[in-house]
Amino acid sequence: MSEQPEVPLKGRSLVTLDDISTHQIEELLHKAAYIDSHRREVAHTCDGRVLATLFYEPSTRTRLSFETAMLRLGGSVIGFAGAQLSSVSKGESIADTLKTVSNYVDIVAMRHPKEGAALVASRAASVPVINAGDGGHMHPTQTLADLATLMSRFGRITNLTVGLCGDLTFGRTVHSLIETLCRFGNVNFVLISPDELKTPQYVIDRIKATPSCSYVEVKDLAAVIGDLDVLYMTRVQQERFFNEDDYLRLRDTYILDEEKLSHAKPDMAVLHPLPRINEIAVEVDNDPRAAYFEQVKNGMLMRMALESSLLGDELPGYVPLQPKEVQA
Amino acid sequence: MSEQPEVPLKGRSLVTLDDISTHQIEELLHKAAYIDSHRREVAHTCDGRVLATLFYEPSTRTRLSFETAMLRLGGSVIGFAGAQLSSVSKGESIADTLKTVSNYVDIVAMRHPKEGAALVASRAASVPVINAGDGGHMHPTQTLADLATLMSRFGRITNLTVGLCGDLTFGRTVHSLIETLCRFGNVNFVLISPDELKTPQYVIDRIKATPSCSYVEVKDLAAVIGDLDVLYMTRVQQERFFNEDDYLRLRDTYILDEEKLSHAKPDMAVLHPLPRINEIAVEVDNDPRAAYFEQVKNGMLMRMALESSLLGDELPGYVPLQPKEVQA
Amino acid sequence: MSEQPEVPLKGRSLVTLDDISTHQIEELLHKAAYIDSHRREVAHTCDGRVLATLFYEPSTRTRLSFETAMLRLGGSVIGFAGAQLSSVSKGESIADTLKTVSNYVDIVAMRHPKEGAALVASRAASVPVINAGDGGHMHPTQTLADLATLMSRFGRITNLTVGLCGDLTFGRTVHSLIETLCRFGNVNFVLISPDELKTPQYVIDRIKATPSCSYVEVKDLAAVIGDLDVLYMTRVQQERFFNEDDYLRLRDTYILDEEKLSHAKPDMAVLHPLPRINEIAVEVDNDPRAAYFEQVKNGMLMRMALESSLLGDELPGYVPLQPKEVQA
C-alpha cells in the first residue's frame, strides 16, 4: 500500500478508482454515511451548481442516480441520453464537446461506449469529469456503491469472506470490486462460477499479489454459501456458453433462491449490480439479507459524496475522518 | 354514496379515482383553486422534493404537466420518456424499476402502455405512484382536470347538463368523466355520437344505477347544443368506420364550429382532452365558451394539488374544506 | 438607421434580430458583460420561473445553452428534444402546442426544422418565444453570441475588419452576422471563399446599402489574414462541389492552422459557430487568438441577458446603458 502522496479531490476528475487514495475512498464512505443521516443539513451544499449528464449510451439507472445526487444537494442538471445526442455526435470530437460543456456546468458525469473516452474527456474539460462507465472498462461509482453497502452492513470493508458468483469472466463490476478490496486487504474471496466463466488471470494475480488476501475457486454456490459474509451475484447469460445443454444444466446452480439462502449465515449480505433478471428469485427480496436495493441507495449517497467533494463544496457539519483512524 | 371510511392521501398512490373519496376529490378541487390564486405562497411547498416521471410511452403534454406542477411547488424532477428508456426496459421488471427509483425520489408519475402497470408499480414502490395513464385503462388526472374546469366555470360539478360528443365507444376520458360525475350525482348526460361509436353498456349501466342522474342518446349535435351547460368534444377517427362513405357523411356532424356554437347557451363550456385535430374549428378558440386551454391549466393545478397532498406537504395558508359544507 | 420607436423587451418574443433595436442589442451586450462579472448576484434573478425548450429537431449544444442560462438565473426547465416529441407531433399544430405550453411556463425556446415556425409559435403563445433556429432561416441567439465575442475581445463591434471564410453561400450564421453588423455600421468585410461558395447577392446588397461599410471578395485566406481583426471560420463541405478534384484542391486553402495563423495580427480573434470538424486544426485551440470556446460562453451569457429581459426580471445591481452613450 505504498501509495503516492494524496492529491485533494477538489477540482479533480474520477476516471478510475486508482485516481484516488484508499484514504480518500474511506473519506467518501464516511461522507456517504453522514449524508444519509443528515439529508436536510446537506440539502443546500451545492446550491447554484449545475451537473451535466452526458450519456452517449443510455443507462437510465445510472443517469438518474447521478442526477438525483446533484438535486439532493441543491444543484441542478442538464444533459442528454442516447437518442437525444445526435447533434452532439455530428462529427464533433469528445474533446470539443467537453470544452463546450465546460462553459455551461460545474461538473460532468459521462457514459460512453468506447474504452478510454472518460480519460479523453477529463483531459479536455476544465471542470471535473466523473466516469459513469466507458465500454467494458471502468465504472468506478458502481464499486463505490458496493463498498458503501459492505460498510453499512458490516461497519467495515475488510476481514470479510466475499463470495462472487456467476459470470466472473465478463462482469467488470466484479473485477473492479476485487481489485479495490485488494487495496484495503484482509479479504477472503470465494470465486463461484462455471468453468466457462472463471475469473481472468490478471484479477487472480492481483489477489495473489496481496499477502493479506486469499481466494478459492469453486463451481457450486450451495456448497460454500454457509461460509460467506457477502454474496455478490451476477447474471449467467446463455450466449456465453458453447451449447445450450451446458447452459441449461448449469443455470440453476447460479440462481439464488430461499432454499439456498437457508444455508447462509443470518447476517450475510446479498449484493447485485442490477438489473436482475432471474438470477435472484423475487422471493429473496423480502429476506433481510437482500441488500441489492440498499445498494441502489448507497450508489446515490456515494455519488452525493463524490460530486460535493470534486466540487469542493463542504457538507455543513461534517467532520472529516482522521487519517490515523483510517490506517488501522 | 355509501363510501368506506376515508384514508388520508398522505403517502398513498393514485391508480384510479376510485382509490379516493368524493370528499377528497372536492378537497383537491378546492386546493387547485387556492393554488391558482396563491401561486407565490405555494411556490416552496415541496422544496427539496424530487418527482420521477417514468414514461414508458411518450406523452409529452402529460409529462410536462406533471413536471411543471412539481417545479411550481419548488421541487425538482428526474425521469425518462420513450426513447430514453431502453436500459430500463432491458428485461427489468416494473417492480424492480420502482424499487430502484423509490430510493431516489419522493413521488412517481408513471405512464405505461400496459393495463394494470400502475397498480403493479404502486405495490412495488415505497413512495406514492400517480397513474399518468396505463393502456386504455385509466388516466385519473385527466378526469381531475375536467372536473376542475367545470368547477372553475360553474362553481359546481353537479346540477349540470353535460353533453359528450364524438367517439363515445373508445374515448376513455369520456367514460371516466361519466363514472366520476355519477359519484357526485345530479347530472343530465346527453350522449351524442354516431351509431358506430355509442357509449358502452357498462357506462350506461353506471348512469342508470344513479337515481339522481339521467341520460339521452342522440346522433345530432346541432339539435341538442342549445340544451347543454357543458360540451365535451372528442375526435371521430376515420379508422373506426366500416366504410369511408359513412365517415365522410357523418364527420361534419361532429365538428364544432362557430355556426353550431351560435345556437348554444352564452355560458356553455366547451371541453376537449387535447390534442385536437379538426373536430373543433380554430375559429372557436377565441369564443369565450372555449375552455379547452383552461383545461390544460386546470390539469396542472390539479396535479399540483395531488402531488402536494400525496407527499403530505401542506400548502401555506390553505384552509381545508369542512366535510359538512361538502355533503350538500 | 432610421429605426421605429423602441418597444420594451418585457413580454415580447424574439424571432429575428430585426424585432429589436440596435440599442436593445447593445443593452443585451452590456447585460451579458455584467452577468459574467456578477454570477452570484444574478443567480436568483429568475427564481420560480420555468423555461420550456421545445426542440422539434435535436440541437444539443443550443438546447443545453438555453437551459443552463435559465438554471444560472435561478429558474428551472422542462421540455423535449427530438425523439421524445412524438406525442406532440401527433398531428397537433404548433399553435395548439404553444397555447398548451403557455399554461405551464413563463418563456419558451423553440427549434423547428420549418422556416417560419418560430413566428407562428410566437403568435400563438401567451408567453415570450425565443427562436432557437427555424430551418435555414434565422438563429438570432447565435448572432448575439458572435457579437458578444467581438465585444469582449475588442470592447466594440464597429471599426473592425471582419473576415468571413469558407462556405459563405449556405452558412446562415454568416449572413445574419453581416446583416446585423451593417445595422451598426463601420465594418470592413473580407469575404473569403471559393467561387462555388460565394456570398449571396442579397447579402452583398445589404453591405452596399450601408455607406459606412465596405467589402472585398477574395479566394485566398493566407493572402489576407494579416489584415483581419476578426476571422470567422465556417466549414467547406465536400458535397457542395461538383467534383472531388475541385474539393481536394481547395480544401486546404480554407483550413486554419498555426502556419497560417503566424501571419495574423497578434490580437486577431478566431470565431467559429461550432461544431468544428477539421476546418480549424486542433493545434490552434491553445493560441490566445482562438475565441470559439469563449463564443460558447458568450452564447450562454447572451441567453441569460435575453431570457431575463424578455421575462422583465431585473438583474440585481445592474445599471442600464444610457441611450446617449450608445449612439456614438
Automatic annotation (TrEMBL), chains A, B, C:
Binding locations of carbamoyl phosphate: 61-62, 111, 139, 142, 274-275
Entry keyword set: Pyrimidine biosynthesis, Transferase
GO MF entry, a single one: amino acid binding
InterPro entries: Asp/Orn_carbamoyltranf_P-bd, Asp/Orn_carbamoylTrfase, Asp/Orn_carbamoylTrfase_sf, Asp_carbamoyltransf, Asp_carbamoyltransf_Asp/Orn-bd
A Gene Ontology BP annotation from the UniProt entry: amino acid metabolic process
EC number: 2.1.3.2
Catalyzed reaction equations: carbamoyl phosphate + L-aspartate = N-carbamoyl-L-aspartate + phosphate + H(+)
Binding site for L-aspartate: 90, 172, 235
Lyase found in the keyword field: no
Domain of life: Bacteria
Domain Aspartate/ornithine carbamoyltransferase Asp/Orn-binding: residue ranges: 159-306
Every Aspartate/ornithine carbamoyltransferase carbamoyl-P binding domain range: 12-150
Pathway(s) of this molecule: Pyrimidine metabolism; UMP biosynthesis via de novo pathway; (S)-dihydroorotate from bicarbonate: step 2/3
Subunit structure: Heterododecamer (2C3:3R2) of six catalytic PyrB chains organized as two trimers (C3), and six regulatory PyrI chains organized as three dimers (R2).
Family assignment from sequence similarity: Belongs to the aspartate/ornithine carbamoyltransferase superfamily. ATCase family.
Annotated function: Catalyzes the condensation of carbamoyl phosphate and aspartate to form carbamoyl aspartate and inorganic phosphate, the committed step in the de novo pyrimidine nucleotide biosynthesis pathway.
UniProt-recorded name of the protein: Aspartate carbamoyltransferase
